[in-house]
Amino acid sequence: MSFRFALRAVLPLCLPIVAQAALPEYEPPELEARSNLLVNDEGFNLPPGSSFNSIDPAIDDDANVAFPVQVVPDAGGSHPGVWFGAGGVGALVYEGPSDAIISSASPLDHGGSIVFTLSDTGGADGLYLYDPAAGEAARVNTSPVLPNYYGSPDINADGVLGYQANFAGGRALASTGDGTSVIHVADRGLVPDSPYTYIYSPAFNDQRHLAAKVATSDDQFTNVEIRIFAPDGSSELILANQATDAASPYSKFDNSLALNNKDVIAVVATRAADNRRVVLRSDGETTTEIAEVDPDGTIRDIEFFAPAINDAGLVAFRARDENGQAIYVGDGESLARVIGNGDDVETDLGLAQIGQNNATDPIFSGKPAINARGDIAFIAGLYPAGDNQTEWGSGVFVTRARMVVTDRIFADGFEAR
Q: What is the mean pLDDT of residues 156-171?
C-alpha cells in the first residue's frame, strides 16, 4: 500500500510562552468511580466486579470524565465498557461484545462524544464513536485509510478523530472527519522515500494536527525529532535530539507526548549534559523545562508516562518525590504537588489513603489528564486510612482548580471558579 503526501517545513504557529509563577490551588479530590475485587466489595458507580488496569482517564472543560473499563462481568464471562460521568455520579454508557478488547484510553469532546477502539470482536474490529444523543456507539468508516488496527485514538472539538494507522508494512498518522480521512504522514515501510523510519504514539488537537516523536535513522531510535503534522502533509519541527542536531541539549525523548490547541507540546526528555530526565514544554521557538530530576530535590524521578498539557501551558505529570509516587503540575517557574502516596481522600467507603499495600506496586494508572481550567483527572490505588493491608481497589478522581488559569501562553491571568 502506498500513499502520496507532501513534506515541507512550516513556520512555527505559536508565540513564545509567557510563564507566570502562581499555580492554581486544588480542591480535595472527588471520587467518580471505584473498582475492586468482588471478594472485597462491589465497587462504586460500576457494575460489581468490574475492573480496569493501566488506563488513561479523559476530562473535558466541564470536568466530565470518561474512561474505558476492560472487564465488565456477564453471565458468559466478561465484556468491555465505557464510563462517563461527573460530580461523583456516572455509569457505563456503552458495553461492548463479550471478550472484546478495548483501547486503554477513551478521549471525549466537549459534547460527550467518546472515541475508542475495539479488537477481538469477531469481525467488527475498528475505531468506535459513542454518540450521547443516540446513546450508542458505532464503528467509524475511515475509508480510504483502512489499517490493520488503530492506535492512540483521539477526538477534537470539531468531532474530528485522530489516530495512528498501523499497517502490516508500517505506520502512519491519520485523521477522519468532515467526510474525509487523510494520511498526515507515513513511515518508510509504507512510503519508500519517507524520511521517517518509525512513528511513535501521537497526540491530537483542535487544529487537526498530530504531534509525534519520529525516527530518521535506520535503527529507529538514534536520530529522533518531535514534529507536528498537518492534514496536508506539511510538518513543523519542534525538537530534535543531539544526534540529529548537535546544538540540542537533549539526548533522547520518551515515546509519547502531549499536544495542546496552540501547537505546544509537552514531553519527557533526557538532558545530554547530565543524563537527567526533564519535563519539557515547547512550541518550536521557546523550550521551557517544567521539572527536572534531582536526587536531593523535589522531583526524585519522572515516570515513563506522557505528561498532559492545557492551552494555558500548565503541564501535569507523574513523578516520584521523597514520599513516593505523585502527580505534579508546573508552569515553568513553579511546581505544585497535586496528589501522591499516603495522601488522604474521601471515598464511598470513608476516608482512604492513596497507595498500595506493596511499596513496589504502582500507585497510579496511566497518565493524568488536565482540562482548560486546570482540573486534573487521575486514577490511583486505595486503602482505608491507616491500614494499607486492606484492599479498596482503584479510584477514578477529579481534583478541581480553585483558581483557574485562563490563558498564560498569550495573557497572564486567573479566573475565580
A: 98
Half-sphere exposure of 20 toward its Cβ, with a 13 Å CA cutoff? 17
pLDDT at 406: 55
pLDDT value for 398: 98
Pairwise CA distance, residues 84 & 109, whole Å: 12
Give me the helices (H) in 93-241, please: none
Q: Are 342 and 357 in contact (CB under 8 A)?
A: no
R_g of the chain, CA atoms, integer Å: 21
Residue 357 pLDDT greater than 70, yes or no:
yes
Count the residues in the chain.
417
Contact 173, 210 (CB under 8 A): yes
**Residue 344 CA: distances (Å) to CA of 104, 299, 340, 354:** 27, 21, 9, 7
Cell of 289: 523545562
Residue 17 φ/ψ, nearest 5 degrees: -75, 135
How many CB atoms within 10 Å of residue 346?
A: 14
SS3 assignment, position 175: strand
Q: Residue 103 and residue 128: Cα distance in Å, rounded?
A: 10
